Amino acid sequence: MSPKLSQEERFWKNVRKETSGECHWIWTRYISPDGYGIAHFGAREQTQHAHRVSWELEKGKVPEEKCVLHECLNRACVNPAHLYLGTRKDNMDRAVAQGRVGLKNRGENAPSAKLNWGKVYEIRDKNASGIGYKTLSKEYGVGPSAIHDVVKRKTWKYPPENH
Q1: What is the CATH number of domain 7-101?
Q2: HEC assignment per residue over the chain
C-alpha cells in the first residue's frame, strides 16, 4: 500500500509541467467556465483558484486586501514565476487594458451574448402584446429573469446609434 500523499503533493500532482511553451505549469484538474483552475485545498478542502493555492504554497499567505494576478494571459497557469500580488483595481485595470471587460464587451458584443438588439425589440414588443416571461425565455433561450430585465430596461438600456 502506497503512503498517503500530503495536500501539497496532491496539488502538484495535478500540474502538468512542460519544457516548452510560455506557460510551463498548467493545472490539469477542473477548469472553471472562465478558464481558471479550481483546486480543493486547505483544512476543509475549500474550493479555491489553483493559482492562488500555488502562490500560497510557494510564497506564503496572500494578504486579505490583495489578489493573485497572472503575468501571463493563461488563467490555468499555476507557475509561481508568472504570478504576482495586486489589488482588485490592478486586476480590473489590466482586464480593461486587455479588452477582456469594458463597454465594447457589452450587449451583443459580449462573448456569451444570446440576445441582440433585434431580439430585444422583439421581446419587448411580444411582452407588450401579452406574451409572458416564461414563454419568451423558452423561445429566446434565456432565463425568465433575463427577459424581465430586458422588458424593464435593467439590461439592454441604450440602443446602438443606428436604431
Answers
A1: 3.90.75.20
A2: CCCCCCHHHHHHHCEEECCCCCCCEEECCCECCCCCEEEEECCCCEEEEHHHHHHHHHHCCCCCCCEEEECCCCCCECCHHHEEEECHHHHHHHHHHCCCCCHHHCHHHCCCCCCCHHHHHHHHHHHHCCCCHHHHHHHHCCCHHHHHHHHCCCCCCCCCCCC
